[in-house]
Write a structure and sequence with these properties.
Elements lengths: L3 H4 L4 E6 L6 H16 L3 E4 L5 H11 L3 E6 L13 E4 L6 H8 L2 E5 L3 H12 L3 E5 L4 H7 L11 E3 L2 H9 L3
Parallel strand pairs: 1-2, 1-5, 2-3, 3-4, 5-6, 6-7
Helix pairs in contact: 2-3, 2-7, 4-5
Length: about 170
């Protein structure tokens, strides 16, 4: 069966990060990331819940972007109000694989264990992974890791503009 998202020529960008308890700075950065994705006619993929996912989706909607939320639950009402296409899965954290597998690019902002699983799966799938430096959590853990990770496994962006430029570049 052909995936309908593959028929769309727009770049599909997953935004991964905390589900709740985000600072005003992370909220603003996430919203700006979403806004820029929508402005460039990208499709924002995320887990469809709160926190970074809701902020990025809100930003995408402000620029008339398309948002897709792949929920861990079976209940569509769990999606944030900025989600256009709601995909309830009943898969829990297993849904993280579907988020990153469908994406052309994965952007990590802060995050915890779920975000770390998404980012590591994306790297394992050879997806372009962009980590927004200074956002804390799993993202900065990876950036500052002493583990021998190849330097071309992920791109470290110092700010939102750099992350968006890299996400939409062809290399």
């Amino acid at each position: 069966m052909e995936n309908i998202l593959d028929k769309l020529s727009s770049k599909k960008i997953a935004v991964c990060g905390n589900n709740e308890n985000i600072s005003n700075i992370i909220d603003s950065m996430s919203e700006q990331i979403g806004f820029e994705i929508g402005k460039r006619r990208g499709i924002l993929l995320c887990g469809g819940m709160g926190g970074v996912m809701e902020s990025a989706s809100r930003g995408a909607k402000k620029s008339n972007g398309i948002t897709v939320g792949i929920l861990p639950t079976s209940d569509k009402s769990d999606a944030n109000s900025f989600t256009d296409i709601i995909i309830p899965t009943s898969f829990g954290k297993l849904r993280n694989f579907f988020i990153v597998n469908l994406a052309d690019v994965v952007i990590g902002i802060s995050g915890s264990w779920g975000t770390l699983s998404e980012l590591s799966m994306a790297m394992n799938l050879n997806k372009k992974v962009i980590l927004l430096a200074g956002t804390g959590g799993a993202v900065d853990l990876l950036i500052n890791s002493k583990v021998n990770i190849s330097s071309n496994t992920f791109f470290v962006a110092k700010d939102v503009n750099t992350a968006i430029y890299e996400a939409f570049s062809s290399h």
